[in-house]
Each structure stands twice: as structure tokens, then as C-alpha cells.
Amino acid sequence: MWNKDERDGKIGQAKGRVKQAVGDLTKDKNLKAEGRVDEAAGKVQEAVGEIRRKAGKAIEKIGKTVKR
């Protein structure tokens, strides 16, 4: 299951791809560049969310092991 950062990161990536496509269609270099930035930021946010999720699972696993 995704956390908020992963979900928002995927949304940011999709938003960036749409901006790039619209920028291509309208020949708007600024919009296309903005789309690339949004997509890259989305990838970073998704990666941060994934790291947080995996760290949380590892901590849970350690906690269960300690309880035994």
C-alpha cells in the first residue's frame, strides 16, 4: 500500500508528463520544462515515500523480533 508521499509523487509525475505533452503540442518550451521539473520532483517524492515505507516495515519487524 502506498503512503501519502508515494501517491503524491506518482500524481506529480503524471502531472509533469501531461504538461510536457501540452508543451509539445503548443510549442511552449516553458511549459515543457515545467513539466520535466514536476516529473522529476514527483520521482523524488515517490522515492522518499518508498524509503519511509520500507523503514517503517523494518522497524515493525525488529519490534516483533524483540517481543519474542
What does this protein look like?
The protein has 68 residues and is mostly helical. Helices cover 91% and strands 0% of the residues. The longest helix is centred in the C-terminal third of the chain and has 39 residues, at 29-67. It is rod-shaped, with a radius of gyration of 17 Å. The two termini are 27 Å apart.
Q: What string, H for helix and E for strand, traces the elements in order? A: HH
Termini separation: 27 Å
Q: What structural class should be given to the helix and strand makeup?
A: mainly alpha
Mean pLDDT: 95
- Helix content range: over 70%
| Rg measurement, Å | 17 Å
Proportion in β-strands: under 5%
What is the quaternary state of this protein?
single chain
Give a quick account of the main beta sheet: strands, pairing sense, barrel closure. Answer: none
By DSSP (H or I, 4+ residues per run), the number of helices equals 2
How many strand segments? 0
Shape: rod-shaped
Give the uncertain stretches in residue-range form.
none
Give a nutshell description of this structure.
The chain has helices at 4-26, 29-67.
Keywords:
68 residues; 91% helix; mainly alpha
Topology:
Elements: H1 4-26, H2 29-67
Helix pairs in contact: 1-2
